[in-house]
Write a structure and sequence with these properties.
Layout (H helix, E strand, L loop, with lengths): L1 H17 L13 E7 L11 H7 L2 E7 L11 H9 L7 H11 L1
Parallel strand pairs: 1-2
Length: 104
């Protein structure tokens, strides 16, 4: 419970920092959501796409990714999911690429 309270404080602090930047944008990116559920999550396998970038900017205490096809091309499709979910250290594209290309 204490860890969740600290996470909420940190997320609120981060959201407060980006509010001036997001003026004129949709409220989706300003609200601190309790839960974000991403259906068809395989669609963010290209982490450079505009859709993926928008989804990564959603602030949430909990995130859930639903997909029936996590791997469509190769193991790099998983990196977008790891980034969305915030799974350390795999959310970092550099670490993900370095470790998996070394071992795969």
């Amino acid at each position: 419970m204490r860890l969740q309270a600290e996470k909420v404080k940190e997320m609120r602090r981060r959201v407060q920092g980006v509010i001036p930047i997001l003026r004129g944008m949709t409220p989706l990116f300003v609200v601190l959501w309790q839960l974000v559920v991403l259906d068809e999550a395989a669609r963010i396998s290209n982490s450079q796409s505009q859709s993926a970038q928008a989804i990564y900017n959603l602030q949430a205490i909990h995130k859930l990714a639903l997909t029936g096809t996590p791997l469509q091309n190769d193991y790099t499709d998983l990196q977008g999911l790891m980034k969305f979910l915030g799974i350390e250290p795999w959310k970092s594209p550099d670490i993900f690429e370095k470790v998996l290309t070394k071992h795969c």
